[in-house]
Amino acid sequence: MKETSLVSNDYEKIPFQEFTQKAYLNYSMYVILDRALPHIGDGLKPVQRRIVYSMSQLGLSATAKFKKSARTVGDVLGKFHPHGDTACYEAMVLMAQPFSLRYPLVDGQGNWGDPNDPKSFAAMRYTESRLSRYAEIFLDELSEGTVDWTPNFDGTMDEPRILPARLPNLLLNGTTGIAVGMATSILPHNLREVAKALIHLLENEDAGLEDVCKHIKGPDFPTRAEIITPPEEIEKIYQTGTGRIKMRAVFEIEDGEIVYTALPHHASTEKIYEQIAAQMEAKKLPMVSDIRDESDHEDPTRLVIIPRSNRVDLHSLADHLFATTDLEKSYSFNMNMIGINGRPQVKDLLTILREWLEFRADTVKRKLEFRLDKVVNRLHILEGFKIAYLNIDEVIRIIRESDHPKKALIDAFALSEIQATAILEIRLRQLARLEEIKILKEMEELEAQRKDLEELLGNEDAFKSYIIDEIREDAKKYGDKRRSPIKERKEAEAFSPTDVIDVQPVTVILSKNGWVRAAKGHEIDPEKLKFMSGDSLLCHARTRSDKPLVFLDDIGRSYMLLTHVLPSARGNGEPLTGHISLQPEAQISYMLTAQEDDYFLVGSDRGYGFITKFSDFFTTYKNGKAVISLKPGSKPLAPRLVNDMKTDRVAAITNQGRLLIFTLNQLPSLKKGLGNKIISIPNKGAGPDKNEVLKFLKILPLNSNLVIHSGRHFLRLSPGNQEDYTGMRGRRGRLLPRGYRKVDRIEINSLESRDGTEEFE
Questions:
Q1: 30, 68, 633, 745: which has the fewest Cβ within 10 Å?
Q2: Beta pairing partners, 537
Q3: In a shared domain, residues 449 and 522
Q4: How many Å apart are CA 316 and CA 267, to the nearest integer?
Q5: What letter does residue 10 receive in the DSSP assignment?
Q6: Collapsing DSSP states into helix, strand and coil, what is residue 747?
Q7: 714 - beta bridge partners?
Q8: Which pLDDT score, from 0 to 100, does residue 1 have?
């Protein structure tokens, strides 16, 4: 008792980390080997293998009457697969759907789903099923000693560890599965192409991947849509075992309309219809007037796109739809499987084919040896029958008179126990009918069979030829033409926003509280617009509906919006934060619009700045991007549009009344950053009133006047007078005359028009 207790205590004291690690690893290996990954031999997962075997045990061959699917599912669960009936039935449905499997294993009757909704199948109590003709490749050799058997989950019966597939079903039907820490995604292939590749490998041992790819062009899906992945990329995928395959719908142009007649694998007509309709509703397809789904039993796929006019470029429209909807899909290729060594591994195509041929050779060898054993055993029995016929009277006498006829027959004619048993099991009436000629004829036939079987097992070339003949015969019986053509197509491009919007002049208005709206035309006066209570105009921009807008916040981040997405100016608009995500405490300070190649002068009130291109403000991220690096407590100044990089000058004025003018080309061109010092500002004092900051930053075109307003007075600096304030970038600048140092605003006037202003602060 004491020892038992100690053992129990030791067991209970296993470290928790060790226990959980072992439990997780055991579970992981179970999921990998017994649920999620297929075996390279028959290409089936355990549940699929059990469904096929169970249906064969129920007599549901391709020529048998259909039986309720619930009968099959019940047998599978009760005998071999102790899991949920829903998962088992869904696996069975997948094996019966011709739009899911290239070569279905189950022949279904009833509602087994449709391509638009594969999970719309009826319950298993309504559907009926039997095995398909293709499933014969798994079962025809099952009873010929070709596989190992293992007890089922409760040990009451045996089930095959693997089915003796005559073709590499793993490549033909493909599979998908997610295990623990690994997944598989193998695409289907054409049976005839794979058969040709196998035969080529058997006939040419030194053949490489390039030779195999001459036969296997690429995957072959159940649909007639096009594979558009270039052949060299497909070969690279076959070389590595991983990659992506692209598939594109097939369309025709009928009476000026686009008609899609074949969709990519697992693409839904209904979903594509919704995707196109959503674009039409969002006004992203103004060139499309209508879309119709004319699919029916005669034309399973017929999706019609009707253009607004005959001037629409239908091929460009089709390209846009390929790029933005499921009319073009890509599929993951990850050839992860359980090899003949029982271990999961990602394999290349050549390895898969060679390893499967190794599996097939072992299966055929076991089949031939099984047949040879049967022939030898039958010959042995016939030898006994022959002796019995030649001595029929003596045999009958021994049987009648002997207490132990089997032993007496063995002693009298030197028979084996098997031969004596076979003679004793013959009925009396059959004993009289035994004819030497018939026995000799059967023996002759069996001797010929034995020689043939021994020749196949002993001659490597004859053995290979036998396998080749089997593969060729199965390819002829079950194969068909390629369904998915491989075409070289250019990359599909979606329409840019400017291609699909009505271009017109607009005025964009931004309020101080961050509400934005866009009014048609440039005639509107933003100052006269109404705003919500407590709100007012911050800035406006006159632009076009196809131009981008850039917003700059007070921490130096830029945001971009396309003008056509902004709401109408008939109301108060909508918050800008519905389109962009501002940082906490940040507020929009400026709004910019220009050509992409235009340049702006940007700077901060600490006296730093640089030149940047308008396109450098662009970003597709909702939370913007950092453009101007700011020191703590600093604010960005209004960006200024550059007129001429060679002749423009910069006018910088501080709040203390210091003015510095220098040529623009002294500043660097950057995409983002702090920039270089524009004007020297000493940081002295504690309060904000004592700190000098850069207040105005202006672009001063060639031969223009600088007008400085201070209260009710103004100072006009002509090009000649500006020389007194001109210096090198980063200098201290010169104080303006007394009375003009508290600058309120600045005007830039051309010499030709002294009264007008080009820019107003």
A1: 633
A2: 511
A3: no
A4: 21
A5: H
A6: strand
A7: 709
A8: 42
Domain boundary (651, 684, 699) is at 699
Name residues of the chain where pLDDT drops below 70. 1-12, 27-34, 428-435, 497-502, 684-690, 751-761
Q: Which long-range contacts (CB under 8 A, 24 or more apart) does 726-731 make?
A: 726/649, 726/661, 726/662, 727/660, 727/661, 727/662, 728/662, 728/666, 729/650, 729/662, 729/666, 729/667, 729/676, 729/677, 729/678, 730/676, 730/677, 730/678, 730/679, 730/680, 731/660, 731/662, 731/679, 731/680
Q: Does one domain contain both 529 and 467?
A: no
302 and 445, same domain (yes or no) = no
Give, for 17, the enclosing helix (H) or strand (E).
Answer: helix 16-31
Which pLDDT score is estimated for 281? 87
Q: Note the pLDDT of residue 755.
A: 36
Could you give the angle at the alpha carbon of 488 between the alpha carbons of 486 and 493, nearest 5°? 120
Q: How far apart are CA 338 and CA 30, in angstroms?
A: 12
Q: For residue 33, is it within any domain? A: no
Count CB neighbours of 68 within 10 A: 16
Burial label for 621, CB within 10 Å (0-12, 13-18, 19+), is: exposed
**Domain end: 676, 699, 722, which one?**
699
Residues 6+ apart with CB under 8 A from 170: 38, 39, 40, 42, 43, 186, 337, 352, 356
pTM: predicted TM-score of the whole model, two decimal places: 0.73
Q: In a 3-state reduction of DSSP, which class is residue 181?
A: coil
The per-residue pLDDT for 25 is: 74
Residue 588 · residue 557 · CB < 8 Å = no
Total structural domains within the chain: 4
CA distances from 458 to 368, 418, 449 (A): 11, 28, 14
Domain identity same for 688 and 585: yes
**Catalytic residue positions?**
126
For 191-250, give the DSSP string: HHHHHHHHHHHHH-TT--HHHHHTT--S---SS-PEE-S-HHHHHHHHHHSEEEEEEE-E
pLDDT value of residue 758? 30
Q: What is the pLDDT of residue 759?
A: 29
- The answer to whether the beta carbons of residues 216 and 69 sit under 8 Å apart is no
